[in-house]
């Protein structure tokens, strides 16, 4: 039976067209979470829908309508294992599931929650924000900061409301400003000033310049931004510094999980996907479905495709249930 490691839920917010989905998709490709066949299929979709350079964004933009219009309109969650956030200077350790030690010899899984940036989809973004333990803000280096300012504020305020700590600002599309350190520093100072106005702490926030499309500074330093070496780090360096939140107090509470997706799987049945907000869920457990009020029985629990004995502590799980029809379950 798979034993889940400690984990962190990272919600990624930012203005429309800031490059969130492209950055996340390319990161997942570099960490071997997406096979080449899938990327090739996404490239063909880009040609079909006349959306060039969107293949990495399609990793998180799952629905057909999102592919056609080229934007995220729902929040999506994907996870990576500790073995995939290998620090370049670390080596593989011997273990059955081939996990690796990251900095401080901690082992963790990371779930990324990609949120839409358009104002009309703010409700969907909030659904994703409330699930996060920490947050990354993604902003575009090539767009005028004043044009992004209102949208940045709209993304930062919910973080404050839901007490989600902003731990990093990812400045992307650096290639469009010729990897300029001056441009990056100007953007950094403007963000710091804006955070102070909103009332967010800036002391522990890290800034990382990247190019999500080209893959610069995602897993290794880019030769195009030599000025970042030993100063700002890469995204993988950032992941290695994440602190696992304390969750033990949640385990003693009644089981609660927000349904994020409902899957109908052949030879399995109905699987409810979501993050365990409180309590513990395991097989052969009777749970109540809201708002229908029906009681259903759990058959099995898994995380990231692996069966587990129990799900708890805000881990992303899939729960196979019986005892109700698909119409009795509601997302949200």
UniProtKB/TrEMBL annotation:
Pfam families: GTP_EFTU. Keywords: Elongation factor, GTP-binding, Nucleotide-binding, Protein biosynthesis. The keyword Disulfide bond does not apply. Gene3D superfamilies: P-loop containing nucleotide triphosphate hydrolases, Translation factors. The keyword rRNA processing does not apply. Residues 5-234 form the Tr-type G domain. This is Elongation factor 1-alpha, putative. It comes from Entamoeba invadens IP1.
């Amino acid at each position: 039976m798979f034993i889940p490691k400690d984990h962190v839920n990272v919600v990624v917010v930012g203005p429309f067209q800031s490059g969130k989905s492209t950055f996340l998709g390319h990161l997942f490709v570099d960490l071997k979470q997406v096979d080449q066949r899938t990327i090739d299929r996404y490239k063909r979709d880009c040609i079909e829908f006349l959306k060039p350079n969107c293949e990495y964004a399609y990793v998180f933009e799952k629905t057909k309508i999102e592919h056609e219009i080229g934007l995220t309109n729902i929040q999506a969650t994907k996870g990576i294992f500790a073995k995939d956030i290998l620090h370049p200077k670390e080596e593989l350790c011997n273990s059955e599931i081939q996990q690796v030690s990251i900095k401080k010899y901690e082992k963790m899984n990371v779930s990324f929650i990609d949120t839409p940036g358009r104002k009309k989809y703010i409700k969907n973004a909030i659904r994703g924000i409330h699930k996060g333990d920490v947050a990354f803000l993604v902003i575009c280096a090539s767009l005028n900061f004043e044009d992004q300012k209102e949208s940045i504020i709209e993304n930062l305020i919910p973080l404050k409301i839901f007490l989600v700590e902003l731990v990093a600002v990812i400045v992307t599309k650096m290639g469009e400003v010729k990897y300029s350190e001056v441009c990056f520093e100007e953007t950094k100072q403007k963000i710091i000033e804006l955070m102070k106005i909103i009332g967010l702490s800036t002391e522990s926030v890290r800034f990382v310049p990247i190019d999500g499309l080209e893959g610069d500074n995602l897993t290794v330093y880019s030769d195009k931004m030599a000025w970042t070496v030993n100063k700002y780090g890469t995204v993988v360096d950032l992941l290695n510094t994440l602190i696992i939140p304390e969750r033990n107090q949640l385990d003693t509470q009644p089981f609660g999980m927000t349904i994020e997706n409902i899957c109908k799987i052949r030879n399995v049945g109905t699987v409810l996907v979501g993050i365990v907000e409180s309590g513990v869920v395991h097989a052969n457990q009777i749970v109540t479905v809201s708002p229908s009020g029906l009681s259903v029985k759990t058959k099995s629990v898994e995380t990231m495709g692996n069966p587990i004995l129990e799900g708890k502590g805000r881990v992303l799980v899939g729960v196979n249930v019986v005892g109700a029809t698909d119409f009795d379950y509601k997302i949200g």
